[in-house]
Each structure stands twice: as C-alpha cells, then as structure tokens.
Amino acid sequence: DDGSHALDDQMGAFNAIVPRLAPGGLYVIEDIWPYDNAVRLMRAIPGAEIIDRRHVKGRADDILLVFKKPR
Q: N- to C-terminal Cα distance for the chain?
C-alpha cells in the first residue's frame, strides 16, 4: 500500500484488497507515521508484523506493516 498515509485510508485499503489476496500472499503498508499508527494497525490486523527501518536512513516514516494471508 503506497497510497494515502492516513490511518483510516490504510485500513480501508487493507479491508478492500486482502479478501482478494491469494492464500500465503503478502500485503505491505509502507511509510507509516507516526509509530503509534503502526501499532494501531497491528492491533487491528491479527498476524501483522511491524518492521521499523527508521534507523536505516533516519526517516521518521520508514515503518512497514506486513501481513501474510493464512493458507
């Protein structure tokens, strides 16, 4: 998901796309900011994982949420 960076839009896109995702497929939301939004998304999406890459380039929004659809 490289769309809107608004939390509600990210959840809306997730809810619209994941039902069409193949079993075992990945859904990644990038450039999440602030970190609290990543935590909110992770709590709303069971099985999701946060990948915090802010330390790599020093960018505040370099946070990913990764979801793997169960098989």
A: 21
pTM comes to 0.91
pLDDT tens-digit readout, 29-48 = 999 999 999 999 999 999 99
Q: Is 30 helix (H, G, I), strand (E, B) or coil?
A: coil
Q: Retrieve residue 22's tokens.
A: 């193949």
Q: How many other CB atoms are found less than 10 A from the CB of residue 21?
A: 14
How far apart (Å, rounded) are the C-alpha atoms in residues 41 and 10? Answer: 8
Residues 47 and 67: their CA atoms lie apart, in Å, by 6
Quick count: other Cβ atoms within 10 Å of Cβ 22?
Answer: 8
**Which residues are within 8 A (CB) of 42 and not within 5 positions of it... i.e. 6 or more apart?**
48, 49, 50, 65
